[in-house]
């Protein structure tokens, strides 16, 4: 089988390495992939948002199955376009991807179907939003409606910060049209849990839970990033919480999407907060998380491609999905300065015995040398019987992967271990 994976980050590297385990796979293409993925797939210089070029490539190369990993192409309808030429895909169509593509949509969906989430108001005019903020409870959270490279959310600890966020999003249009509407919502507190799930719209199978570490600095300080590391499973996701989530959040969500004529097939990601009043939805993503995927897939015992194809065929209910016991930890090695400005072009050295544990996110190949090219450069993942061992092992391997300007957090997993 010829497989095509759309995207080019650490998440896609992890997906590709897992798909390769299936013996019926003859070729994997990554569009665009990156310099590190090039060791595991044929990288093709087509951007993840260039849907006409993606469709052309699939047709000309006889692609049998496509995995559309990032949010942008999903929200733009990449799956619809590929299905139109008969290429089966893993990922939701445009109508279903709106669950991530519009926060106004997802909040209204949750309200209509009684799915627990933060209370909220929607605004289409900055004046009305600023007026509301004069008396709104603080802290509060301001969210751009549309996609914003993961940067559209401001957790405002003061009234001024909330008002600044409204002005940036709605008046200065920092995120373009994504900011034509905003959601202002109640500030929630509690540990965060990420749960990725496979769903074909009828059946939903949660994967092992995980915890992201979004802030740049140790102790969860500093600016938000795309994620500086992950662990799985997440100790705050107890069996009781899992049962509540299944009954009150997971099943109601896929049923709601179906009832709205937006049946979701693919990976539905639940960003949850375990509050004193129980688990609540912070956000939905219509795709695998990055770097959650890097800790979740190594714990998947079942064959990934088989599960994905069952999702596409609407037969997930007949497909066993098993995870191994044990734990995983992924430490992200970034460029010093990220998420602000950073230098690039530094050579990356990865010892041979660590290579199988590294997912490359931001690197290019030049004359056979792997050079840094992004803020998040790579992730080093270890699996072990316990979380403590996985964390220790991930850090001991991470220390052996070197490049100039290397930066990492040193406390990935600490909150999970301390309880
Ligand atoms: P997002 O970009 O949607 O992943 O949100 C970024 C982060 O903002 C989340 O991981 C949470 O830590 C935080 N956040 C989002 N919504 C809320 C909320 N209602 N209350 C408190 N924190 C929130
Ligand atoms: N790690 C969070 C995300 O992928 O959105």
Describe what is shown at a glance.
Helix content is 30%, strand content 26%. By secondary structure, the chain is α+β, with helices and mostly antiparallel strands.
User: Which class of secondary structure composition applies to the elements?
Assistant: alpha+beta
User: Mind telling me the CATH class of the largest domain?
Assistant: Alpha Beta
Average of pLDDT: 97
Label the CATH architecture of the largest domain.
2-Layer Sandwich
Q: Can you summarize the main beta sheet?
A: 6 strands, antiparallel
Q: How many structural domains?
A: 4
Unique bound compounds: adenosine monophosphate, glycine
Task: Classify the helix fraction into a percent range.
Answer: 25-40%
How many E strands?
A: 23
What CATH calls the topology of the largest domain is: D-amino Acid Aminotransferase, Chain A, domain 1
N-end to C-end Cα span: 45 Å
Radius of gyration of CA atoms, rounded to a whole number: 21 Å
**Count of helical stretches:** 13
Can you tell me the overall shape? Answer: globular
